[in-house]
Amino acid sequence: MTFLVTGATGTVGRLVVEELLEAGQRVRALSRNPAKAALPEGVEVVAGDLADPGSVAAAFEGVVGAHLINFAGDDYAPLPDGARLVELAAEAGVRRVTVLGGRADGPLEQALAATDLEWTLLHPVEFMSNTLRWWAHTIRTEGVIKEPFGDRLSALVHERDIAAVAATVLVEGGHGGREYTLTGPEAITLREKVAILGTAIGTEVPFVELTVAQARAKWAADGMGEQTIEFLVSALGDTPEIGYTVVPTVREVTGRDARSFAQWASENADAFRE
Ligand SMILES: NC(=O)c1ccc[n+]([C@@H]2O[C@H](COP(=O)([O-])OP(=O)(O)OC[C@H]3O[C@@H](n4cnc5c(N)ncnc54)[C@H](OP(=O)(O)O)[C@@H]3O)[C@@H](O)[C@H]2O)c1
């Protein structure tokens, strides 16, 4: 069977591609820039821009299931015409769809809910992989983490588990009309996260807790805009319960335990070493 993966060059999509290949499926990957996609051999990479549904129509042909992102562009803006994308998928005979959810359901999710496609919405909490973007450079160059909210809990999820759920849902079916929150196996504090990472790297990484005022000043000095700073203060300072409540969905869908942050840290330790 052939599956279409959008966002296939991204953190989660790249792993959805791998999981589908490992399951013995054929994969078609969508990218705005196929020449730069660098995906595994055997993957059919096709050009398309989700902001322009017409450019994606051919990619749905001959596809049993599709993994969709719900944004277009590097600023994660909601898809301008998600409903048209859904129409095109249905017209092409696509039967199953997974959606990598973001902050809120948008037109894509609403359009899917009105079809008889077998759709499944995936709502992961914080990705473990954010640690690379946020901390790898700082730990390599300064060897210390300075952040506010040291006791903030997160049930952060391994990006490969998100991909494994998507691939299982697409290949096996039976998850239509479901919305799945995806978490890791435990909720850990920021302090614990730093300690776990230090153990994986083999060096103690000190954690210095900033006050909110100090954090605001640091983020502004790092070049963040006022809106991003406000978002961080509210998202990190007041994480919704869903962000730190462990759920068993990864195990229930894939049959495997969700991967721990210790496992993620050991897999990625080299990125944090000088
Ligand atoms: N990070 C977190 O903690 C977190 C938590 C929960 C949910 N999420 C959600 O996860 C999603 C981000 O996933 P990710 O981190 O895997 O993405 P990512 O690594 O940022 O990759 C973005 C992908 O989107 C594709 N893309 C962007 N605009 C496109 C367009 N107009 N047409 C076609 N493809 C387009 C890119 O493909 P090309 O460049 O090859 O075209 C790329 O593969 C967001 O919806 C976010 O809200 C993130």
List the helices and strands and how they pair.
Blueprint: E1 2-5, H1 11-22, E2 26-31, E3 44-47, E4 65-69, E5 71-72, E6 77-78, H2 82-92, E7 96-100, H3 107-113, E8 118-124, H4 130-141, E9 145-147, E10 153-154, H5 159-172, E11 178-182, E12 188-189, H6 190-201, E13 207-209, H7 212-221, H8 226-237, H9 249-254, H10 261-268
Parallel strand pairs: 1-2, 1-4, 2-3, 4-7, 7-8, 8-11, 9-13
Antiparallel strand pairs: 5-6, 10-12
NADP nicotinamide-adenine-dinucleotide phosphate is lined by residues 6-13, 30-33, 37, 49-51, 69-73, 76, 100, 102-103, 124, 126-127, 130.
Report on the structure:
With 274 residues, this protein is an alpha/beta fold. The chain folds into two domains: 2-124, NAD(P)-binding Rossmann-like Domain (Rossmann fold, 3-Layer(aba) Sandwich); 130-156 and 185-245 and 259-272, Rossmann fold. The chain is built from ten helices and 13 strands. It has helices at 11-22, 82-92, 107-113, 130-141, 159-172, 190-201, 212-221, 226-237, 249-254, 261-268; strands at residues 2-5, 26-31, 44-47, 65-69, 71-72, 77-78, 96-100, 118-124, 145-147, 153-154, 178-182, 188-189, 207-209. Strands 3-2-1-4-7-8-11 form a seven-stranded parallel β-sheet, with helices on both faces. The longest helix is centred in the middle third of the chain and has 14 residues, at 159-172. The model has no long low-confidence stretch (mean pLDDT 96). Bound molecules: NADP nicotinamide-adenine-dinucleotide phosphate. Residues 6-13, 30-33, 37, 49-51, 69-73, 76, 100, 102-103, 124, 126-127, 130 line the site of NADP nicotinamide-adenine-dinucleotide phosphate. The site of NADP nicotinamide-adenine-dinucleotide phosphate (NAP) has 29 residues, from helix 1, strand 2 and strand 5.
